[in-house]
Every structure is written in C-alpha cells, then in structure tokens.
Design brief:
Blueprint: E1 7-11, H1 19-35, E2 41-46, E3 57-61, H2 73-76, E4 79-84, H3 91-94, H4 97-103, E5 108-112, H5 121-133, E6 136-139, H6 142-151, E7 159-161, E8 181-185, H7 194-202, E9 212-216, H8 221-227, H9 230-241, E10 248-251, H10 257-266, E11 269-272, H11 283-290, E12 295-298, H12 301-307, E13 312-315, H13 320-332, H14 334-351, H15 353-373
Parallel strand pairs: 1-2, 1-4, 2-3, 4-5, 5-6, 6-7, 8-9, 8-11, 9-10, 11-12, 12-13
Length: 374
C-alpha cells in the first residue's frame, strides 16, 4: 500500500484573497482527491488569526509574532509544504520565513512561486538558504528551473518541475455569441498591461460584431490600500477617451474559483498583456489553457514556453497593435481557433490538478521515506 505522509501546508489560505492562498487550497484538494481522503492534511495559515478559516487550518502564523511551528507538529506531520513568495512572510522580502525553515524538525519542501532573474542580495540569500535547509525545491516551469539552477547556489538541493495546476474543462462545440468575448482576470494593479488591451480594442472597432473586453477581478488589496481605485478608474477613463467604453466591461469584485470557471467558459480568447518580461510562472496562463481558451500573451518566459506550440499567440510587450492583430486573427478565423484547440488538448492532461496532485504526492512520499530511512 502506498505511503500517504501527513502534510502541513504553510501558506496564506482562504478566506485570504490572493493567488498563493487559492493555489494552496487547490493543491491540498488535489492531493486529498489523489488519496481519497483529507486525513493527515493540515494548514498553518500565514495571516490574521481573526479570519474564519476552514477546518483544515490547525494553526496560524503571523510574522509579527514569529514564524516557528509548535514542537508538537513534529509528531503529527511528516513533511512541511512551504509555499514561498517574497512579501508573504513579513517585511524585508519575508526573510523571517528562514526562522521557520531553519528551526523545523521535519523535512521541508519549498514551492517557489517567484524566481527572480536579478534578485537583490537579500532575496538571493533567502532562496539560497531555503535550498540549504530544504529537502527539495519545486518550480512550475522549465524556464524557472533553468534560471534557478543557473543563477543560484543550491547547495545540492534537488529541484523538481511540477506545473501550476488548472481546472481542466472539456468544452463543447464552439458557440457563436452575439459578441465575441476577450477575457483578462485577476487582482488588478499596475503591471498587468491592461492599458494595452484597451488600446487594442480601439483598433478592433471595425469588427462586426465588435468584441467585448471583460476585465474581471477586484483591485489588489495592497494597491487599494495605497492608491484606492485610481488604477481601475484610469482604465475606465482611457476606454472612454478612446471611444471604446461600450467595448470594455469591468467586473469589480473578488471572483471565486467557481465564478472564474463559469466566466472562462463564456470567453472566446484569453488576453494576458503583462508588462513583466521575466515572469516564469503564470497561474492565469495555465488556467486559460485548462479552460481550452486560445491565449494572446506578451512574451514573458512562461508564455513562450507554453504557447510556442500553437496554443495561442505571442506579442511584444506594450504593443497594442500586435495585440489587436493577434486577437483579430483568432476572433475571425475558426480554423485558427481550431488549430489552437488542438495544441491546447496536448497540454491539458499535464496541467490538470489531478496530474499535478499526483506528482506532488509522489514527491512528498519520497521525502518522508528518505527521512525514515536515514
């Protein structure tokens, strides 16, 4: 019988509203589905203890109160699963996460959601110290692994590449809608490149029917705290100035996983016009492919990796003309959408949460077994 190690996930967790929290819950659910049970799966939630956490949250961690796990967890769990993102674990790039890792009495597997090409001295120190003390590191793309192994001293720490998971849908035949829908989603803030998407709509006014560009999601809490809704308001003002307010629709609320599945099922094309030129992991990109959506994306590394085979089109950063051209080709040409669909079908099985959960399950079992054999 396969060994199912008891796992303690250390991460932000719903009802906290961030991508890391959503990922952690999805991964925990995928592993539970792989095992057929939620037994032995717990969460140390990083964040406010006042939130109404679900039953799997067994303790809370807050950087201001220290990031050390109770000693009793050493006998209750076999492996710590650390979701790492700079800034989640307090100030100074979240350096206090190292207190947790260096004091842990259990093997730690760290899932790196960001691998920087040009880290600061402190950011480099954090990643290299994680490598020194962890039983393994996980990245979510080939480009992330290449960057990690080339640019950091990993002290012999093994690195696994396991893709970001997605809810995989099997859409029926293409349905011709009154207006084709171009969809961008996620927490809003500068750097998403949505201005380029709106400017691209200005270049698509001649299409009949004109596409509808849906920008879905609430403003990022950090942006909202520092800038209010100025970013979103600026996007709306830009659409009005360009005469495309009737082609741009905002959904200004937090979208649950179920909301997003429904929304993606209605879309024609996903648009990811991100300004970040070195992004090696994009959950939205994987989710779009899982939903069977052709993607138009800027040439950030993860997009180049997944879309080069035909699942979408790559455009230069900050290029509304290029975005408009690629969108138009996908919107008006059924054969091009069909070809993209075939390429997507080849990617989807590897990106499903079922496949991703099984890969993590094997990794965690191996880590626990190695400790047991030592």
């Amino acid at each position: 019988m396969a060994f199912d190690p008891a796992l303690l996930f250390v991460s932000t967790y719903p009802p906290t509203r961030c991508g890391l929290a959503t990922f952690s819950k999805s991964l925990l659910n995928a592993i539970a589905d792989t095992r057929g049970s939620r037994a032995g799966l717990g969460v140390a939630a990083v964040g406010s203890p006042s939130l109404a956490y679900p039953a799997e949250v067994v303790t809370h961690l807050h950087p201001d109160a220290g990031l050390r796990l109770p000693r009793r967890f050493a006998s209750a769990f076999d492996v710590i699963v650390l979701q790492h993102e700079f800034g989640i674990f307090g100030p100074d790039d979240g350096i206090r996460v190292l207190d947790l890792v260096t004091s842990a009495d259990l093997p730690v597997i760290a899932v790196l959601h960001t691998v920087l090409a040009e880290p600061s001295k402190r950011q480099r120190y954090i990643i290299e110290t994680l490598a020194e003390h962890c039983a393994g590191l996980v990245v979510m793309s080939k480009s992330a692994r290449q960057r990690l192994e080339k640019s950091y001293n990993l002290s012999g720490c093994p690195v696994e590449t396991i893709p970001h998971g997605a809810v995989v849908a099997n859409p029926g035949p293409y349905v011709e809608r009154l207006r084709p829908i171009v969809l961008s989603w996620g927490l809003l803030g500068p750097g998403k490149g949505l201005e380029s998407g709106i400017r691209a709509m200005h270049r698509l006014r001649h299409l009949q029917p004109a596409p509808l560009y849906i920008i879905a999601g609430q403003t990022h809490p950090n942006v909202l705290k520092s800038q209010g809704e100025s970013y979103r308001n600026g996007l709306a003002e830009l659409a009005a100035e360009l005469g495309v307010a009737n082609m741009v629709h905002f959904i200004n609320r937090y979208l649950t996983a179920e909301d997003l599945v429904q929304l993606r099922s209605q879309a024609t094309v996903a648009l990811l016009p991100y300004e970040n030129k070195v992004q090696v992991t994009s959950g939205a990109l994987v989710e779009a492919i899982g939903a069977g959506l052709p993607v138009v994306a800027t040439r950030f590394p993860h997009a180049v990796e997944l879309l080069t085979g035909g699942a979408g089109e790559l455009v230069d950063h900050g290029d509304p003309r290029g975005i408009a051209h690629s969108l138009e080709r996908l919107l008006i040409d059924p054969a091009r959408r069909l070809a993209a669909g075939r390429a997507i079908s080849g990617l989807k099985p590897h990106l499903s949460w079922t496949a991703v959960g099984a890969s993590y399950q094997r990794l965690f079992a191996a880590a626990a077994a190695e400790v047991g054999a030592a």
